[in-house]
Amino acid sequence: MTASTSPPFARLGCGIGLRREHYGPILEQWPEIDWFEAISENFMVPGGRPLYVLDRVRERYPVVLHGVSLSIGSSDPLDFDYLGELRALAARVRPAWISDHLCWTGVGGQNAHDLLPLPYTEETIDHVVARVRAVEDFLERPLVLENVSSYLTYRDSTIPEWECLGEIARRADCYLLLDVNNVYVSAFNHRFDPLEYLRGVPADRVVQFHLAGHTDNGTHLLDTHDHPIGDPVWRLYREAVRRFGPLSTLIERDDRIPELSEVAAEADAARRIQLEIDGQARTHAEPLLATDSRA
Amino acid sequence: MAKLAHTQSLFWQLIRAPDGVEAALGALPDRERMLPGGIDAWVCGDERLRAVARLEVYAGMYFFRLLGCLAEDFAAVHAVVGHQRFHALVRDYLERHPSTSRSVRLLGRFLAGFLEGHPLGAEHPHVADLARFEWALLEAFDARDAEPLAPEALKSLPADRWPGLRLTLAPSLRVMEAFAPVQEVWAAVTGGQAPPRVERRRTVIRVWREELRVFHRVIGDVELAALRAIERGAGFAAACEAASAFTGEEEAPLEVARLLEQWLADRLLVAADASPSL
Q1: Per DSSP, what are the bridge partners of residue A206?
Q2: Closest-CA residue in chain B for A40?
Q3: Exposed e or buried b for every residue in A2-24, given b needs 16+ CB within 10 A?
Q4: Of chain B's two ends, which shows fewer C-beta atoms within 10 Å, N or C?
Q5: Of residues A55, A53, A48, A66, the one with CA closest to residue A12
Q6: Are A266 and A211 in contact (CB under 8 A)?
Q7: Closest Cβ opposite residue A45 in set B51, B53, B105
């Protein structure tokens, strides 16, 4: 079974993240957006405007729930209160799927509200696989895990990140959300070849892409989601579409959020790339990041 | 999982340290056992970014993300005390109250109480109340939805059933007592003006949501007494009794009936029964 034909993972087109700054224009104009991704935790509230907006959006668009607090890699026990809330939200929203990140977000019952890096070891794989299975059993649906941007590597990491992702996906029978910007950011920060990353991720497990902008801090790239998508990330996206197909793609913008039309224009640009590449042979390759001195 | 648990515990300890990663490393108890070989044996660094600097990236992201969240949730407090002091306040607050919730939305739930014992609270005497008011607005914003009672719902109630009438208040309602009219400070700041100086004056404020909009209103002692009684599960008669301390016994039923009319108009009542039903 390949991801592209897997029934739960329809190709939704190119969508954008559902952000508070755009609630007004969305509800007033019902713009032509293929789909929306909602940050799960923003809607795990008792009531009021957030849930009202999400319900209205869901009436007209496909929605994916994207979490930031699952903390699948934490050494803390799984938080079944949180998972219960997520399950209730999913019952209300009927999302196309639920995703979160391959990372940890806190320990000792405390939360950093950040996507923290895991050591890529056999210990981590065993730990995460068991937890993904438990989460999938609880939610009664497959989980989709995203690669994060990272700024450090542990000395005892013995496995390349892409192999770790693939191994977890295979063993836990979960799927992958490939954040192309995160691959690019981490490739720069850790000096690996982003194309090797793409080649190393199992194609039959990737069901969605993320695209976003980052900030160049000189010594490192920071995954800030506050800029338009940069050219090198677009180039890497073309390679990702060649390798994995025209999968559901989501434009993320979380800070300095521009007009809805500007984010929608980036979704249109992604769609054009998909259409262009869909007509070409997937094996076609052009020099991409090989000429990019930063990576 | 022992190694993973150790890695995460150490990482978390270092990135949340208020004086930075370097200082936290220096102060690490039992350093030889916690970090044998030093940080470079634990985390890869290079000439572009040393190992400590890489951890500092995470420390910075952690702190500034949460600072940003609290500055947004407590915009008026932020404006009143100024950015530098707010920054210092958040540093102290996160040390005492690190987030224990999966949702960053709940991060500021202890800030008002924390301010009461913080030097900033002494310097700005009404800032704890202002924080409490802003928190009430946030709680009302996404409180549980409930169908409001129609304004005409009580009109047909026979007189003999009024004493036993039980009322339920909207889940979004918050009633707070402050030492100053902090809602005036909030209104000025959110309206883009400089925070006004306010005198010490006991002020009772109710905050609630009608459909998707959050409102607030200053209320008097009669209304406070009646609302508190209803919050405790008392019926109309008991609410009148509570109000009578301020109105006198004779005036109380009429006064509470007037309040009921106002509450219905404000969609503050979500269900009422007159034992057994209306």
Answers
A1: A176
A2: B103
A3: ebbeeeebebbbbbbbbbeebbe
A4: N
A5: A66
A6: yes
A7: B105
Cβ contacts of A279 within 8 Å, gap of 6 or more: none
* pTM as predicted: 0.93
Alpha carbon of B198: minimum distance to chain A alpha carbons (Å): 32
Whether this model's ipTM surpasses 0.85 comes out as: yes
List, in sequence order, every beta strand (DSSP E) within chain B: 166-169, 174-178, 203-210, 213-219, 269-273
Residues of A with CB under 8 A from a CB of B: 41-42, 44-52, 69, 73-75, 79, 82, 104, 106-114, 116, 118-119, 121, 123-124, 127, 151-156, 189, 191, 219-220, 222
For residue B92, give both structure tokens: 């102290």
The Cα of B251 is separated from the nearest Cα of chain A by a number of Å equal to 37
Cβ contacts of B101 on chain A, cutoff 8 Å: 111
DSSP summary character for residue A133: H
Neighbours of A55 (CB within 10 A): 12
Q: Are A176 and A240 in contact (CB under 8 A)?
A: no
Walk along chain A (295 residues) and give the pLDDT tens digit of each residue: 344 444 579 999 999 999 999 999 999 999 999 999 999 999 999 999 999 999 999 999 999 999 999 999 999 999 999 999 999 999 999 999 999 999 999 999 999 999 999 999 999 999 999 999 999 999 999 999 999 999 999 999 999 999 999 999 999 999 999 999 999 999 999 999 999 999 999 999 999 999 999 999 999 999 999 999 999 999 999 999 999 999 999 999 999 999 999 999 999 999 999 999 987 754 554 444 443 444 3
- Gap between the Cα atoms of B263 and B267, Å rounded: 6
Number of H helices, E strands in chain B: 13, 5
Pairing of strands A143-146, A175-179: parallel
CA distance A250 to B249: 65
